[in-house]
Specification:
This protein is an alpha/beta fold and about 250 residues long. About 40% of the residues lie in helices and about 20% in strands.
Length: about 250
């Protein structure tokens, strides 16, 4: 896997789900709001950490800017959003220009491994480090980019059991993942919240039927493989092989 492959995955996703959208939208999981009581994980983060206007934040894996613009708009903090996808960054800049906080939020196509040292009070990485080519290098870069007493928040799909490897391999193949994001690798981090119970999954019948249909479509449509990978991930949640964790590192 290369950064170019990751870029192409998210360019394809944007073309499929957000090409005609006039407002920014989250690319991370949509949690059950009746149970979670927050409109998004960005809202939970801002509430829990009491983010204020003095904060300098990095949104590592910003998508089309939904979270970055939300934080800048509601808390007047300064935010830089980065993504490997040039199409996402172009869309995020378009959305930012439509808001009153365009002077507070900045977007740039950039690798997570090439960051400015001692710059950020908070770094937020939601469903992004799973695409790392070298997990140790990525984590070191993120930690180095924190100011003293800075906080790194990672929210992602963590492998907690080594069962159902055939499904996991299919998921990793479809999303072109190189890193097995095992929770045990994050011994310097603190588990702040287990978000797994807020995830809504389809029934086993729906998942199997969806995968069957997508198997027929994959040779003809790039997006079909990415969607199929998402269904394999839902299967892993059903089988309790992965967990959706919010982890914290304090410098």
């Amino acid at each position: 896997m290369t950064n170019k492959i990751v870029k192409n995955i998210y360019n394809t996703l944007l073309h499929w789900e957000g090409k005609n959208s006039i407002n920014p939208y989250p690319i991370h999981k949509k949690l059950n709001q009746h149970k979670f009581e927050h409109p998004s994980v960005y809202h939970w983060i801002s509430s829990y950490y009491k983010i204020d206007s003095n904060a300098h934040i990095l949104d590592a894996g910003c998508g089309v800017g939904y979270g970055s613009i939300y934080l800048a708009k509601h808390f007047k903090c300064t935010i830089k959003g980065i993504s490997l996808s040039d199409a996402e960054i172009k869309k995020a800049k378009y959305y930012a220009k439509k808001t009153s906080v365009s002077n507070k939020v900045f977007f740039q196509q950039q690798s997570y491994d090439n960051l400015e040292a001692n710059t950020y009070d908070f770094i937020i990485a939601i469903e992004s480090i799973k695409h790392s080519l070298d997990l140790d290098k990525t984590l070191n870069a993120l930690i180095t980019a924190l100011k003293p007493n800075g906080v790194l928040i990672i929210i992602d799909d963590f492998l907690v059991r080594d069962t159902h490897q055939n499904i996991f391999c299919r998921y990793a193949r479809d999303w072109r993942l190189k890193t097995d994001l095992k929770y045990t690798l994050f011994n310097a981090f603190t588990l702040k919240k287990d978000l797994t119970s807020y995830i809504k999954t389809k029934s086993t019948l729906q998942l199997n039927l969806g995968i069957f249909i997508l198997n027929l479509s994959v040779p003809f449509h790039k997006i079909a493989q990415i969607i199929r990978g998402g269904l394999y991930l839902e299967m892993l949640y059903q089988k309790k092989t992965v967990k959706y964790y919010a982890l914290e590192f304090k410098k």
